[in-house]
Write a structure and sequence with these properties.
6-stranded mixed sheet, 7-stranded mixed sheet, alpha+beta, single chain
């Protein structure tokens, strides 16, 4: 008796819902898949709207002053609000089987499930690699709405079009896109015109004590608090803060930590620094995470990112949305499962979302 396509589709759907444990090795492309972790643990879910928007007040109306008796006032109201905007970017993957492959494995439960696990892992690994790659990049152009706003989009080292700064401070102004062109407009606000819409950046030459001082200065200068007399209108959000760089810099930080460690014992072998799953070492109690995508990056950046202000947004009901098995008349013997999502990153405050330390060349 022939097996109907609808029966095979039902079988696929049922098996996908409860894939039994089967082990096989995968040649992973990244050591940590940090961006995937961020989208799962640090994300904020919102619904509706054709883009992601938040408000920021960058200026005041200038009404405060000291005064003498009987001085007159001239009240003014300024336009102090700006809108931060990021478009929804959509991504997806898929995995497929031919109906004859399914029939060949239909009476072999282990073979059938293994086949599905391999195809599903194939599709999801592609998606994970894509997420990791784009998280550490700017869009292709200043008008590109296909790709998300990665870390270098909001935390930039460029003070002018095409050149990095030499003086430390809140002068991360220009964004360099993948086409090598630059723009000072970041998420709808022009940083060339708005001094408070610029990130902190500073130079370093080597991983040594001077780098620690540079880092600590950046850490202190990007830590703002509301005055006691003003209720902070922003929503407090508990989130991680981490340091990201390439493997060589991370290893140099481990060496520096060892040099500062005087508690060596007879059983120590080469190093007293313990490496754990959260990072190879800590600076100011923040884990240092090596990122493959930063290997060979221009100016050897060290990023510090605060995910309370640098927020990965995903669309409610449309993130890792796995559909039902489908077939079409163009490939009538093939079943395909599609997995889709909509997301982007939005920085609420470029002065407090983190900073970047980098070399001059």
């Amino acid at each position: 008796m022939a097996v109907k396509n609808s029966d095979l589709a039902d079988l696929i759907a049922i098996t996908l819902n409860d894939l039994p444990k089967q082990e096989f090795e995968v040649g992973w492309d990244n050591q940590d898949y940090e961006a995937c972790r961020i989208y799962q643990t640090e994300r904020m879910v919102i619904d509706g709207g054709n883009q992601i928007e938040r408000k920021i007040m960058l200026d005041t109306s200038g009404n405060a002053r000291y005064r003498r008796a009987y001085d007159t006032d001239e009240p003014t109201v300024g336009d102090v609000m700006h809108t931060i905007k990021a478009p929804w970017t959509r991504l997806g993957t898929n995995y497929s089987w031919d109906d004859f492959e399914l029939l060949q494995n239909k009476n072999n439960a282990k073979g059938f499930i293994s086949l599905m696990k391999v195809r599903r892992a194939d599709g999801l690994l592609d998606l994970a690699n894509l997420i990791e790659e784009r998280f550490w990049k700017t869009p292709e152009t200043s008008t590109d709405d296909l790709y998300p706003y990665g870390v270098p989009y909001y935390i930039t080292m460029y003070t002018t079009d095409g050149s990095v700064g030499s003086t430390a401070g809140f002068n991360g102004i220009y964004i360099e896109f993948q086409d090598a062109n630059a723009s000072s407009t970041c998420a709808n606000i022009n940083a060339a015109n708005e001094a408070k819409w610029r990130n902190y950046r500073a130079l370093y030459t080597a991983v040594d004590n001077s780098l620690l001082k540079t880092f600590r200065l950046a850490f202190m200068k990007t830590r703002f608090k509301a005055p006691i007399i003003v209720d902070d209108p922003s929503k407090k959000r508990a989130a991680a803060k981490r340091i990201y760089t390439n493997f060589d810099v991370a290893a140099d930080m481990m060496d520096l930590a060892d040099q500062k460690d005087d508690r060596h014992s007879g059983k120590d072998i080469l190093s007293n620094l313990k490496v754990d799953d959260t990072g190879v070492c800590y600076v100011n109690r923040l884990p240092v995470v090596p990122i493959p995508q930063l290997v060979g990056a221009d100016y050897t950046p060290i990023y510090c990112v605060d995910f309370a202000k640098f927020i990965p947004y995903v669309h409610d009901g449309y993130w890792m949305k796995e559909g039902e098995p489908q077939s079409d008349r163009g490939q009538h013997t093939t079943f395909t499962v599609y997995l889709d999502g909509a997301h982007n990153n939005l920085c609420l405050n470029r002065r407090t979302c983190g900073f970047v330390l980098h070399k001059a060349s």
